Amino acid sequence: MTQGKKVASPAAQYFAEVLRLLRTSAGLSQNELGARMNYTGAAVSAVETGAKPATDEFIEAAEQALGAGGVLRAASKYVRLERYPEYFQGFVQLEQDALSVMSWCTHVIDGLLQAEDYARELLRCGFPPIAEEEIEPLTTARLERAVLLERKPVCVVDVVLDEAALRRQVGTADTMKRQYEHLLSCAQRPNITVQVMPTTMALHAGLHGPMKLVETAECERLVYMENNGKSTLVSKPDEVGVLARRCAMIRSQALCPEGSLILIEQLAGEL
Questions:
Q1: 14 falls in which pLDDT band (50, 70, 90)?
Q2: Do residues 182 and 147 lie in contact, with contact meaning Cβ atoms separated by under 8 Å?
Q3: How far is CA 204 from CA 90, 109, 214, 238, 248, in A?
Q4: Residue 101 in contact with residue 212, Cβ under 8 Å?
């Protein structure tokens, strides 16, 4: 059976149409616009036909080359959003506007704190396998979530990692060493706290599975959970209250921030 041609996402299609309209209104060919942007005409054609999604760099270059008045630049966050799995897109929007995020991670290190090589290797080991040409855009999209860590107004980020997630080797030893160093660097930020749930704490409040407690820009609390490509967003106050208390217990049962960083330093030193 012949596989059908991959269709560009709605946001990518809309961006392509707006780009085409602005280019033709300016009386430019694809080659002429490409020359202004330091891209080839073929690259412009690929975006306009939906063969390739526009990168942030491409969008900014087109914005400046066409003097688009912010029209193309405004589309970047929607094009970027569609790089994520569909079930995760809604949460990414909540996360980026959040006042605070508390994450309990049981299998892998939280995406907000992942180093580039670590994120790339996680994507490569997914199943069903991801096409190799999709790995880099997905890696970039995951890393872009980290803009939250430097955002103003500041977002308070608390992450509790199961020690098993820290010890699980993803990629090479060098990949893990860079990941540990990245964690230690992130933890130096005043708005970020990293804690570790030690394996010696065999029975704890987090055994039900990973979750994220988010305080929205409207001061509403929500809990996000996902499993096997499915996600749940809990918004009922009584249910959120139970899960929020569970998050508080998880934090109290984990190592203190100072002890957690000492453990991460020890793991890095073993590599």
A1: confident
A2: no
A3: 30, 19, 21, 22, 12
A4: yes
